[in-house]
Amino acid sequence: MKLGHWFHHLFNPHCVDCEHLEQEHKVCQSCETLKMQLSIANIEKKQLLDSILSFTKPTVQSVTQIRPEDVQPKIMTWNVRKQMLEAEDRKTASLMKDKEKIQRQIDELEKEVGIEKENENASSI
């Protein structure tokens, strides 16, 4: 408030000019509400537009680097290949031997309990 305006307001508190200025400076509540709603609507529009445009953007896929070792065939000598095959065969044979031992133990336990006869009768039906 200017000094002259302050003196004027002090000596003439209810003059027409002061009331007119006061009404001009008043904030209209409905206008403020409308401004707020417009702002919210604009933000929602922007978010909607951004989400729609995000579908049209190309997706960036990461490209893995290929090393020359991956592309070149792995050369294996016959001796190395033969050793690998023999090791696999020995492992398979030991597993089969273990399986036979376990099956014999199961058969013996079934004989002791008497389950073997029931299984044979059930399989013959």
Task: Tell me what the structure shows.
With 125 residues, the chain is mostly helical. The protein contains six helices and no strands. The chain has two domains: 53 residues, no CATH class; 49 residues. The protein is elongated. The relative contact order is 0.03.
Write down the overall geometry.
elongated
- Mind summarizing the main beta sheet? none
In whole angstroms, the N-to-C terminal distance is 112 Å
Q: Please tally the β strands and state the result.
A: 0
What can be said about this structure in brief?
With 125 residues, the chain is an all-alpha fold. It is built from six helices and no strands.
Please supply descriptive tags for the structure shown above.
single chain, 125 residues, mainly alpha, 2 domains, elongated
Write the layout of secondary structure elements.
Elements: H1 3-11, H2 16-25, H3 29-56, H4 68-71, H5 78-113, H6 115-124
